[in-house]
Amino acid sequence: MSPSPGPQPTAAGEADRCCVPGCEETALRHLSLAEARRAFRELPEQGRSAPLCRAHYKEWKKRTKESRTLDRLAW
Asked: What are 50's strand-pairing partners?
């Protein structure tokens, strides 16, 4: 079994970049813009999804852990 090829390129042939201002890392995860704004208020108003690098995705998970847990308990 071969390893994963990594981030998928966009139509222009480039990999997505993290949308957090000041970050130039390659995006590994995409969240909805509304979900990403729960942790990062300074995100630009572009598109519907927010590409995040590994470090910012981890930060998003830490900042929203409590509210995500409460959302799951409400099921």
From this structure: 31
Residues 6+ apart with CB under 8 A from 27: 7, 15, 16, 17, 18, 19, 51, 52, 53
User: In the beta sheet, which residues pair with residue 15?
Assistant: 9
CA distance 5 to 19: 22
pLDDT value at position 74?
A: 81
**Dihedral over alpha carbons 55, 47, 67, 65 (to 10 degrees):** -10
pLDDT in tens, 38-61: 999 999 888 899 999 999 999 999
pTM beyond 0.85: the answer is no
